[in-house]
Amino acid sequence: MTARLGCFARRAAWSAAAGSAWWTQRADCNSRGRWEDEAPVTERLAPAVAAARLARQARDRQFDGYIEPEVLAELLAAGRTGLVVVDVRDSDFRAARTGRLKIRGAWHAPACELRSDAVPLVEALRGADTVVFHCMFSQQRGPACAQAYAQHRRKVTPPLPAQRVLVLRDGFAGFQERFGGGANAEELFEGVGPWNSSSCLKQGRQFVPGPAPS
User: Fold this and answer.
1) Residues 6 or more apart whose Cβ sits within 8 Å of residue 45
2) How confident is the model at residue 56 (pLDDT cuts 50, 70, 90)?
3) Domains and their CATH numbers in the chain
4) Taking a C-beta distance cutoff of 8 angstroms, is the pair 83, 153 a contact?
5) Rounded to an integer, what is the distance from CA 110 to the centroid of its chain?
6) Is the whole-model pTM more than 0.90?
């Protein structure tokens, strides 16, 4: 009983501190020192909580930072070669509130798959010079997947060609709010297609790099 109460106390303490963690985790009382991920962020975090996560993330992240929605929209509209967008939404990939849309040309690599095994994506995107990750709000899954991807990429030998690994600020929801009703919405968005339980990686989709950008 004492151990169980101690476990609950630790969980209470961690729940208070979780807001400042950029890769949100909770203690697993069944195994001391083991960690497991919490559920995905389904609504925007409070500004103070989001700011605290970003501050902590900046200390130990291995991806290259964030890209603003306006910058990504310009690159996509210009047909920027060497750029790949990776959508890591899970069950919310086909969310009715977002019209069951995704960014045009984006790969779908669910976070539940990618965070446990980033190897296939790293191998598939060897030829890309810029990879942009996002989830619904880019407050948990997007940064965590970018981190896992960047960490694995650094371990590959011989070293892979230079590549920028970024996260889309404000995620798909923010991107859609800015551009979903614009004149070029058809250039930036597309339907997610028929239901398929496998990601595009498991369907064998491969990235084919175009000519080097000028």
Assistant:
1) 19, 53, 137, 139
2) confident
3) 60-191 (3.40.250.10)
4) no
5) 9
6) no
